[in-house]
Design brief:
The protein is an alpha+beta fold. It contains 14 helices and 20 strands. It is elongated and about 105 Å long.
Length: 568
């Protein structure tokens, strides 16, 4: 009976040709008079798991063929997990098919037979060699691309081209030597530069990613893949440093022409999150403190609609987890009527911005942050000095390697070179991280400095108030003492704090407590400084200050809170 054969062929990329492997399989079957019933083939990397061609191969059994013929073991897999290679071969044998590799036709692995120890060792060694060869190929490709891109930061080395760029033939290309020059270049597409500027301008003006995408789509623009814009595609453009003239390729940090300035790029990184945070999805029931008002448990306070017996409605700001019965047992904080909180916060903010103390604290905070930025800049300078030292050593090693002929010494110097290169890469990553911190601190300074003038605070809409809140506030927390009483704690970016005592009854009030009062978060009590006096026969002097603690009810008994009411 003529033996039935299934062939298996695989190449790693679309550019590689499957025909050579197929022809080898066909020639082998023809020479031996075997019937080649089918060749399963696929263009996919051997390191990839769950390949469709392997799944199809493992679905074959003795009812359709007698043998599987493969050009070489590496076609099955180049994974480093050697057991998976042995597992694949064993599965084929269990399915009743012999296995033969054309790089060693003297050995046929028989169906239903267990692999012998010598077979396992042989296959393991071959699989290990295949995995190592894959690593060498990857290294050669990576090194070639690194050389190419290092010689020209605009060199195209494959992959997705960012929006606003295009690939062109290199006019200086006339054949490569050591991967130089690059055959193709990735250059700025002047026709799309204005689109990049528009996207950044939208985000800097407070537009959310979703709305920016809608704007681009309304103009009939599409992404590099000819698809409509979405939040993700806009986000990638905002966060990609290539538009700020920084191309990161493998271990290389390359400088390109800047499409977006440093200032706009850094501001956009902050705005992209803030715009989403403060975006109100509906125009009705606008929450000017969205993203700023919290429950003591850490979750946001959200608007919840309440209906009275007469059918009228009002809104309460309550923990966003209030409908979670299990969580409600942990978070006992009650809600607060939204109008009371909104009016109280706005009254406090207006009053605080008029204080000279606020300006003083602003200057103090800006000075403090500027000091941190100076320290970070000094850290960058020290990193750059270290990089220069390491690169000088790398240059010496590179020259030494070209002069040494002994293999052992070459490997030693190469190892030292790689170690230095790794240190340089780590320092460059450190510099990137520090620069991100500096950008955030600069944004803080801008937010603290860029406060609306007091004369403009009158007559603002809720949306206008929201913009002021974003500039001056860090968070607002409502701490309830019981269902009728609680404290609103308003924290500013410059470190100032306001405390409002709220009584939620018909004859209630919202009292803006004196700035000397502070709030103990753990005890939920007001701390009032009391000066202790020491008297002697000649004089009276203040010796020290202690804090007296008051709960809401205790505070009511000691102080006339209505005198500080701001809800009138």
């Amino acid at each position: 009976m003529e033996k039935r054969v299934i062939g298996y062929a695989r190449v790693s990329t679309e550019k590689q040709d499957l025909e050579r492997q197929k022809n080898l399989i066909k020639e082998y079957c023809t020479d031996r008079g075997y019937e080649l019933t089918k060749i399963i083939s696929e263009k996919v990397s051997g390191i990839k798991k769950n390949r469709q061609s392997i799944s199809e191969l493992l679905s074959m059994d003795s009812s359709v063929a007698d043998m599987v013929v493969v050009s070489e073991l590496s076609r099955i897999s180049r994974q480093k997990e050697l057991m998976s290679v042995l597992y694949t071969i064993n599965e084929i044998l269990d399915n009743g098919l012999d296995v033969l590799f054309l790089d060693d036709t003297s050995k046929v692995y028989s169906a239903h037979a267990e692999l012998k120890l010598v077979d396992i060792i042989t296959l393991t060694v071959k699989a290990h060699s295949a995995a190592e060869e894959r690593d060498k190929i990857a290294t050669r490709m990576r090194t070639g691309k690194l050389t190419k891109v290092n010689s020209n930061p605009y060199a195209y080395a494959g992959g997705i081209v960012p929006y606003g760029f295009k690939v062109i033939d290199n006019p200086n290309y006339s054949g490569q030597k050591n991967n130089i020059p690059a055959k193709k270049l990735m250059v700025i597409d002047e026709l799309k530069v204005k689109d990049i500027h528009l996207i950044y301008q939208l985000v800097l003006n407070g537009t959310t990613l979703r709305d920016a995408a809608k704007k681009m789509n309304s103009m009939g623009l599409v992404t590099q893949h000819n698809k409509p814009f979405c939040e993700t595609s806009i986000s990638k453009i905002i966060k990609n440093p290539i538009y700020n003239g920084r191309r990161r390729f493998k271990r290389l940090d390359l400088q390109l022409e800047k499409i977006i300035s440093d200032e706009d790029w850094n501001r956009a990184q902050v705005c992209v999150s803030e715009n989403q945070l403060f975006k109100e999805k509906s125009t009705k029931n606008f929450n000017p403190l969205k993203g700023l008002v919290f429950c003591p448990c850490g979750y946001a306070l959200m608007l919840h609609k309440m209906v009275r017996r007469d059918g009228s409605s009002y809104f309460v700001l309550a923990c966003c987890k209030k409908n979670d019965k299990a969580y409600r047992l942990k978070c006992r904080n009650t809600g607060i009527i939204s109008d009371i909180l909104f009016k109280s916060v706005w009254a406090c903010v207006k009053s605080t911005l008029l204080l000279s103390e606020y300006e003083v604290r602003n200057k103090t905070e800006i000075t403090r942050i500027a000091g941190i930025i100076d320290t970070l800049n000094n850290k960058i300078e020290s990193y750059l000095d270290e990089i220069d030292t390491y690169r000088a050593d790398m240059g010496k090693l590179a020259k030494t390697i070209t002069l040494v002929s002994a293999k052992g010494l070459i490997e030693q110097y190469q190892s030292e070179y790689i170690g230095l290169e790794s240190k340089v890469n780590q320092l460059q990553d450190n510099i990137k991280s520090v620069k991100k911190d500096i950008a955030l601190y600069n944004s803080e300074i801008k937010l603290i400095s860029d406060v609306e003038k007091n004369s403009v605070l009158a007559g603002l809409t809720d949306r206008g108030k929201s913009e002021v809140y974003k500039k001056v506030l860090s968070r607002v927390v409502y701490y309830s003492e019981d269902i009728f009483r609680g404290f609103i704690v308003i924290s500013y970016k410059n470190g100032l704090e306001n405390i409002v005592a709220v009584k939620k009854t018909r004859m209630g009030y919202a009292s803006f407590l004196p700035s000397t009062f502070s709030f103990d978060i753990k005890k939920r009590k007001i701390l009032v400084p009391i000066h202790q006096l020491e008297m002697d026969l000649k004089s009276i002097s203040i010796s020290n200050v202690i804090n007296s603690e008051y709960s809401f009810k205790e505070l009511e008994r000691v102080y006339d809170l209505i005198q500080w009411d701001i809800a009138k």
